[in-house]
Amino acid sequence: EKNRGASLYTSHKKTKPEAQEDDPSARAFDREKDMAGGMKIGHAKRREMVHKAADFGSRFAGGKYL
């Protein structure tokens, strides 16, 4: 065993752990973390969303419910 190097477990344990992803459901609301990025969309994406939303009303226009 003296000729053998360190086990994978011990070498992995010594390495610096990577930053864990911040799970918002596991912590309290933090304005700095949760609202920092915001929702940034470009002009093309905004135009596409508006176009889809304009057609949304026509989906339910044909039915007679009452």
What can you see in these coordinates?
With 66 residues, the chain is mainly α. It has helices at residues 8-14, 31-34, 43-54. It is elongated and about 85 Å long. The chain starts with 7 loop residues before the first helix and ends in a 12-residue tail after the last helix.
Key structural traits:
66 residues, mainly alpha, 3 helices
Topology:
Blueprint lengths: L7 H7 L16 H4 L8 H12 L12
The residue ranges in which pLDDT falls below 50 over 5 or more consecutive positions are none
Mean residue pLDDT: 76
Radius of gyration (CA) equals: 26 Å
Distance between the termini: 83 Å
Assembly state (oligomeric)? single chain
**Strand element count:** 0
Pattern of helices and strands: HHH
Which class best fits the helix and strand makeup? Answer: mainly alpha
Count the DSSP helices.
3
Strand proportion, as a percent range, falls in under 5%
| Largest β sheet strand count, sense and barrel closure | none
Helix content: 25-40%
Overall morphology: elongated
Question: What's a concise summary of this model?
Answer:
With 66 residues, the protein is mainly alpha-helical.
